[in-house]
Amino acid sequence: MSKRKAFPLPSEIRDLPGAEGWEEMYPYFTRFGPEDDNRFWFYNAMHFPEPMPPFDVLTAEVPYTSLGAFTTRVFAFPTTLGVDHRIVNGRIYITANPVTDPAEIARRLEIFQQRAGHYYQNWTELYGQWKKRMEDLIAELEAIKVPTLPEFDDIEVVTEARGIGQNHYVREAFNRCIEGFSKMWHYHFEFLMLGYGAYLVFFDFCKKAFPEIADQTVARMVSGIDVLMFRPDEELKRLARLAVELGVDGVFADGRSPRQVLDAMAQAGNAGSRWLAELEKSRDPWFHMSTGDGFYHHHRSWNDDLSVPFSALPHYIQQLKLGHSIDRPKAALKAEQDRIIAEYRGLLGSDADRAAFDQMLGLVHLVFPFVEDHKFYCEHWYTSLFFDKIREFGALLTRNDVLGDSEDIFYLHHTEAGQALVDVMLAWAAGAPSRGGKHWKPIVKRRKQVLERLKDWTPPAALGPIPDHIGDPALQMLWGITSETLQNWSKTPDEVDENELQGFAASPGVVEGTARVLTNVNDIHMIQDGEILVCPVTAPSWGPVFGKIRAAVSDIGGTMSHAAIVAREYGMPAVVGTGQATKRIRTGQRLRVDGDRGVVTILG
Amino acid sequence: MAASSGEPVLFFSSIRMTDRPIVGGKGASLGELTQAGIPVPPGFVVTTAAFRSFIHGLDPAGAIEREVAGLDPDDLVKLSETTARIRERIEAFPLPADLHGAVTAAYRELDAGSGAAVAVRSSATMEDSAEASFAGTQETFLWVLGEQAVIHYLRACWASLYSAESVVYRRRAGLPEAGLAMGVVVQRMVDALSSGVMFTRSPTTGDRSVIAVEGSWGLGSCVVSGEVTPDKFVVNKVTGEVVQRTVSRKEIEHVADFTAGGVRVTPVPADRREVPCIDPAMLNALVALGRRIEAHYGTPQDIEWAVGRETSEIFILQSRPETVWWSREQAVSTGPAAKPFDHVFAHFGGKP
Q: Where in the sequence is the domain holding B131, given as residue range(s)?
């Protein structure tokens, strides 16, 4: 492999003034070593667009533990092992470990055929079992009780002769949370890479048969119509309809906070009570929707912050009052998908190719319900509850004066949080004050400053020598990284037009309009009708505003991202994965969004 | 309805693809399109039978045929002299009265007394691939006005069979002179606002799911000849998305000389130079027509089109099978597998 140097080496990355010592926030195994200079790494901006709070590195550590378990050890993917990750200046860089020796590939293929074959052969049945297992795991998490450590332990410890003091359960409950999170990510990858494998095979076939086919067009043939990720938005529509039917839609007057809406609803008699009861039904589980992608503790769920879902309700109510339908035209969407499939099928050169196309697409349609729906179970439902549970431990630490605020637990690595909890367990037992306040509070303060400072760093898209060829299916499947992507990344600044941003063409069409840059989903209510949304991640929780905006632009995301799918449904142009739209575009600027070519132009 | 082989003149409306031996490739295609309901400007073909009767009148003993058959393709001096002399004779020789009458009557029927301009174009009987490289038989005369001019350019087309390039080609390829013939298309001209070509597959990748449309202001001759860089649009056939849209700077256009006939080259006025030569509605209509024609023939097509200046009506001037990618067509899969997921194993190097 010849090596061209176009990206800095890991060893060449310098500390930011004011952020020195950032390493102490993260485990030793995430640090770059001298040997890592010989390998090619890329910034995983898709999942980790911000500097990592120490607790949140669990959302890298655990997924890479489980991803690799299934590719390397469980299914023995022939051409790829797992993913290595490192952290520098708070950002997560990763590299995949390909298998290149033909004899080794052949040996693994034999194992893979047997094991993957079992899953593909029994997919529907196994996926049914998966849902049950996942729901049980969620129930287990919800059942975990975080001890309150009252002055005297519960009387039942005595009357039932339980024999275990409550402080024991601090450790047990915390460990069970971490273990459950780990199990959840194993379930996450149990089917996922097999699902992506089937998708990749169909995708490559389409690219070979139709060299100019857009990624988004393949996605349109593959995407499910009735997927879980649409369900939270469907629930909002249901609540909007109900509010109109019950005559309580007036409660959603402009500018009212969720609290004011709930209070007004509570005073709206029977109708208000009925609406509130239905709201509660929707909230569990459908509002366990993260405002992000499930990788940061501060991406709160709809349940945590009702202003996100409630900001969409007035728009839906207004549409209903105007007599417009807010239903997703499922039948029409399905008919259009069937038409696209039939037409491409018809354009193939032979009946043999058509038969292969049918099989490959059939397999994708078999595996895609999992690929699309697992995200709601894992990254949204489970993860939202998980972070809330961790907050309860944060509250325990705060009550015991180890931390200043329950959110501060996220500035501790989970092993450090475990230590701090032992401090509390000891203090309760000893009848003495905890010792952590003096230790942790200054550390948390310093870490907050360091993380704030690290936000100013622009991470290079990649580090280390560029390999001649990148053919790792895991990189292509998960991050869309191919040799071509790397060429684009390594372009020098003078080859790049200042007023142009290049991304993935996620949804076709060309429009011009005014930019609304939102770096925090909690500001979602600021969006005005007809604006172009510019946001960091295209998370599903943006879905409800799609009825208002004219186009969507994101820093991160691929053509299969939820926002891309929603944008295509709304027939609205979208460019995703631009890398730096929220940094280079300012609210109020005029933009042209070209969703056919994946280009955003700043017009001024 | 198949045409009878003896007719000197056949209107498009009575020609099918199977009439190719008597009307040539271009004429057969225009007849086929007309009968398929595609908007083709009306016209007729002066058939190979007409050509033979003309040559018989000029050279009843077959001396020209023998003389050309004996030419040495490497002796260019002699070949050029001989063929120039033959062309002069063809261009000067009057048409037999019945043939002259048939052509002028057809022209009058076409122009309906309005003095309409026509295009006079040769329509070779060779196979398409050969036709493409058969230099000199691609004569096209635009904006031809009046009976006399039609007769004049008809003979010019016929004469082009004896251009030095054509004869060198035939001699080198060892093609027989006996039975040599051509059809000549006489077709009403469209006073084109813009015109161009389209391929019902990608000319760069062969992708059958896209249509590439190229066009420029005025008559299509400047696009075909490469005198302008045309606007280019690539449209996805299935989704209708415009996947590429390149508006070029179009410096010149070919426009009709309405009084003297023929074509003038004029600069495009500054305010139109960088304006797309077709609007989205026209592009849509072109793509729809392209798809209809492709579906009619069952293979990707290479199509010439024009948009009328007054009416914005779209006309198809020519369609022939695309040949470059067709010859490279290959299977993209190994066909169906025993189990659908065997494709995944094959992808990783396993045996399907």
A: 9-188
**pLDDT tens, residue by residue, B253-301:** 999 998 889 999 999 999 999 999 999 999 999 999 999 999 999 889 9
Task: For A98-118, give the secondary structure using H, E and C.
Answer: ECCCHHHHHHHHHHHHHHHHH
Segment A245-257 shows an average pLDDT of 88
* φ, ψ for residue A16, nearest 5 deg: -85, 135
Same domain, yes or no: B300 and B255:
yes
d(CA A78, CA A394): 43
* CA pair distance B16, A16, nearest whole angstrom: 78
In A102-222, the DSSP E strands lie at none
Mean of pLDDT over chain B: 89
Evaluate if residue A247 carries a pLDDT over 80: yes
Number of CB pairs, chain A paired with chain B, less than 8 A apart = 126
Contacts with B343 from chain A: Cβ below 8 Å: 201, 205, 356, 359-360, 363
CA A460 – CA A232 distance, rounded (Å): 36
| CB atoms B237 and A121 under 8 Å | no
CATH level 2 (architecture), domain A496-602: 3-Layer(bba) Sandwich (3.50)
Q: For residue range A139-157, what is the model confidence (pLDDT) as tens digits? A: 999 999 999 999 999 999 9
> What is the least distance, in Å, from the CA of B312 to any CA of chain A?
25
Q: Which of B158, B188, B218 is the last residue of a domain?
A: B188
Residue of A nearest to B212 (CA): A212
CB atoms within 10 A of CB B270: 7
Separation of alpha carbons B321 and B342, rounded Å: 37
Rounded to the nearest angstrom, the minimum Cα separation between B57 and chain A is 50
By the 10 Å C-beta count (0-12 exposed, 13-18 middle, 19+ buried), A56 is classed as buried
Q: Are B63 and B208 contained in the same domain?
A: no
Q: At what angle do helices A168-209 and A58-68 cross, to 10 degrees?
A: 60
Instruction: Please list the residues that pair with B121 across neighbouring strands.
Output: B140, B185
Interface contact B4, partner A, CB < 8 A: no
Q: What ranges do the domains of chain A cover?
A: 10-113+457-485, 136-151+183-399, 496-602
Among all chains, which residue has been given the structure tokens 């439902």?
A: A381
Q: What is the nearest CA distance from B226 to chain A, expressed in angstroms? A: 25
Least CB–CB distance from A79: residue in B241, B336, B348 = B348
Q: Touching check for B114 and chain A: CB below 8 Å?
A: no
For A466-483, write each residue's pLDDT tens digit: 877 776 666 766 666 777
Is B246 an 8 Å CB contact of chain A?
A: no
Total tally of structural domains belonging to chain B? 2
Q: Are residues B150 and B222 in the same domain?
A: no
